[in-house]
Amino acid sequence: MSKKNSETPQQESVAVPRRQFLKAGLAGTAAAATGTAAAATGTLAAATGALAAGLGIPDWSRQLGASVDDAPYGKPSEYESTVVRRSVEWLTATREASINFTPLYALEGIVTPNGICFERHHGGAADVDPEQHRLMIHGMVDRPLLFTMEDLLRLPRVSKFFFLECAANGGMEWRNAQLNGVQFTHGMIHCVQYTGVPLKLLLEEAGISTKAKWLMVEGGDAAGMNRSIPIAKALDDCMVAFAMNGERLRTEQGYPLRLVVPGFEGNMWVKWLRRIEVGDESWQAREETSKYTDLMPDGRARRFTWEMDCKSVITSPCPENPLVSMGPNVISGLAWSGRGAVKRVDVSLDGGKNWTEARLEGPVLTKCMTRFYLDGWEWNGEPVYLQSRAIDETGYVQPQMAELQKVRGVNSIYHNNAIQTWHVTKTGEVENVRLA
Ligand code: MTE
Ligand code: CO
After folding, report:
1. Quick one: which atom of ligand 1 is closest to the CA of 221?
2. What is the reported pTM?
3. Which residues does residue 345 pair with via DSSP β-bridges, in sequence order?
4. CA-CA distances (angstroms) from residue 247 to 118, 193, 226, 257, 319?
5. Cα(410) to centroid(ligand 1), Å
6. Which residue's C-alpha comes closest to atom 23 of ligand 1?
7. Rounded distance from Cα 167 to ligand 2 centre (Å)
């Protein structure tokens, strides 16, 4: 007998509850079918023994585990070490002005853990000392202001979940299916809970002129990245955030301060935020003229395309999550819209001919990722062309790529929100394909 000590594994406690045993599909064996209670009990005992043998007593049950202080800041299990941000070598010339991708295939629910939120820097991730950091608000205001972090932390704050999607997400997929993994086709996105001060409050404190129409927001990184934000958006739902998912921002996400611009392209969410200038015209910054514009078929460019269009993708199965067996399988994915809440998601198994409404798993929040499921899907081993199609509360329907190309051509880099097709082959492998 083992000691009845809560720190020692109970070696006897391997009995399998009968309900669980029945669920395991071992009931109805020949012996049980004889109808005699004794025979059935004997079979049960033997089968339970077999299960217990399968359960075994592994090494980790025979020794003490790590002590409480082994990891003062915890990390994921070593068995999950492949779940990391990844980049595409050929995409950018340098690592400082580059991007990596969120491992969407490994996520559950709607929250992205801080350590695997994709990163996009134009001049590397700035290492900012919060004590020395300042936020200046000036321009067309009654009272120019300079805030320390301490000042900001004394103001009323809010906590809200929002997705952030880089406008270039899916940019490599405009002409054809190119990258074989949902991490790379859709991973320039993350969704976290931000905590910060409403921008409206800071602007009211400074007293903005009635003639003001635009803000210029600037980062404190080497790139000094800046963008123009329309006043209406600034006074609506923008936040000056200092925390994500319950802890201070990560360095790579703009520590100690970033702008949150819900539903708008990621480029406008200035990190290491240091300056807000109030004006009556847009700034025509590099990032809103030579970049983050969309070249149309007629040679002209769409500009100030801020709102991220409604979009979705199936994250399981996907190239990183192949099917391993026939029978019941989970189809799951993520949907989002920069214009509000996701209203509905449909799933197709035949490349968009027939659609079935998916189940939305709450919470369903505005300008936030929404998790969807197609429950109880039985895979019969035949090839499948999987697609998902999201519809938001404005009634906007996510388009097929052919429809999008009709309007936008093939020269765009940004704002690809087309329906994704995954081809599930007979072996269960999944590949990124483009249907005609
Ligand atoms: N802010 C500053 N100061 N510098 C930058 O390079 N990159 C922008 C934006 N804010 C950037 C920035 C771009 S293009 C995107 S998509 C988002 O930050 C990415 O945010 P993330 O790194 O938290 O994912
Ligand atoms: Co971006």
Report:
1. 3
2. 0.90
3. 390
4. 17, 10, 26, 12, 32
5. 25
6. 253
7. 5
Show the ligand 1 pocket: residues with CB < 6 angstroms. Answer: 117-122, 164, 166, 190, 219, 221, 223, 225, 252-253, 266-267, 269-272
Ligand showing the shortest atom-to-Cα distance for residue 270: 1
Residue 218 alpha carbon to ligand 1 centre in Å: 11
Please report, in tens digits, the pLDDT of each residue of the chain (436 residues total): 333 333 333 333 333 333 333 333 333 333 334 445 556 667 778 888 889 999 999 999 999 999 999 999 999 999 999 999 999 988 888 888 899 999 999 999 999 999 999 999 999 999 999 999 999 999 999 999 999 999 999 999 999 999 999 999 999 999 999 999 999 999 999 999 999 999 999 999 999 999 999 999 999 999 999 999 999 999 999 999 999 999 999 999 999 999 999 999 999 999 999 999 999 999 998 888 988 988 899 999 898 999 999 999 999 999 999 999 999 999 999 999 999 999 999 999 999 999 999 999 999 999 999 999 999 899 999 999 999 999 999 999 999 999 999 999 999 899 999 999 999 999 999 999 999 7
Q: Which residues contact 145 (CB under 8 A, 6 or more apart)?
A: 136, 137, 138, 202, 205, 206
**122 Cα–ligand 2 center, Å:** 9
Instruction: With beta carbons less than 8 A apart as the criterion, state whether 351 and 435 touch.
Output: yes
